[in-house]
Batch of 2 targets.
Target 1
Amino acid sequence: MIIDYAALVAEARIARERAYAPYSRFSVGAALLSADGRIFHGCNIENASYPVTLCAERSAFAAAWSAGVREVVALAVVADTAGPVSPCGMCRQTMFELAPDLAVLLANLGGHEQHTTPRELLPGGFGPDSLLK
Ligand code: THU
């Protein structure tokens, strides 16, 4: 499948507008493209009990997996950062579990972009195979 990254980033920017981030005021958007061509949005959803916060990336994966999707081909993440936004450790772990070789595009509002994969973002990550003896 040919991936239209510009369109995916545009979708992530739309998702970002829906962030619920009253505490950090740091809005993040994600757009996850499934193998069957659907796009699932994710945004960060904060909580007065701060650690309960859900990041945009995990929000997008939750939306896709909840819809029954199990094959995804690309993810765009965008925030208002100096360089491409850096996913947190928990999101790296989630992405490594569900789609280790996913094409991930990290971006900021200024057009800086970095192409990577969950495997690259979490070197030596603990995954499904790690449970095998
Ligand atoms: N956040 C994300 O949603 N994704 C990232 O890649 C980095 C951090 C959120 C969590 C929290 O709501 C806010 O950004 C500040 O940490």
Target 2
Amino acid sequence: MLKLQNITITKDDKTIISDISLEIKNGNMHYLMGPNGSGKSTLALAIMGYPEYEVEGEIIFEGQDITRLSPDKRAKLGLFLSMQYPPAIKGVTILSLLKNSYQAIYGKVNVLEFRKKVLDEATKLGLGADTLSRYVNDGFSGGERKRLELLQLIILKPKLAILDEPDSGLDIDATKLMSTELEKLSKEGMTFLIITHLAQLSSKPDRVSIIKNGKIVEEGGVKILARLQERGFNN
Ligand code: ADP
Ligand code: MG
């Protein structure tokens, strides 16, 4: 579904990612793991088209070269990024963000029906009834922001979801909720690239790639997780 071919990412002449090639297969749950500062968030942002990085190599999504496409075009094709630190956007309510994003991808909706659907899902995620009319992430705690990202994922149903540390800042119950929801979306066919330290979101990722200092140093199956949990990244 997604192929990264010899990707090098630089910012102001500093090389952050060097010559990474990676394939994420349709329907897979693919983990990207690695120590702090290894370039995980940079890679995630670059896949989505963050304009401040210079990208060499090719990003191929469902056979199409998207390396030079703007982020909104990538989103329309079915890519979604949940950032490690989702920013607040004052003046934009959560409902309008979701409605406009949804309509840009799928076409016009009935606003009342859409509102009801969003409210139902938000309630299931433990977000208050006032959530929809609040500004995006404004005054939300770290954990609430992650739930809001999950809400977007559930409503927008992208083909490929890139989640940058969706488990960070969550308490035990919220982590369980996140895992259950991600497993459900995965069973429905969504493809995932999940950046995580703790590897507690899914019992069975299909693939695990380890990144260090901007390079993929290892790739394999779920077996890698047990070793990491025992010995960390410096084995
Ligand atoms: P990770 O997500 O794996 O912890 P990051 O991708 O956030 O790592 O960062 C990798 C390295 O790139 C870090 O040394 C970080 O300081 C640097 N970096 C990331 N973005 C920028 C930027 N916009 N300007 C300068 N350096 C950056
Ligand atoms: Mg990061």
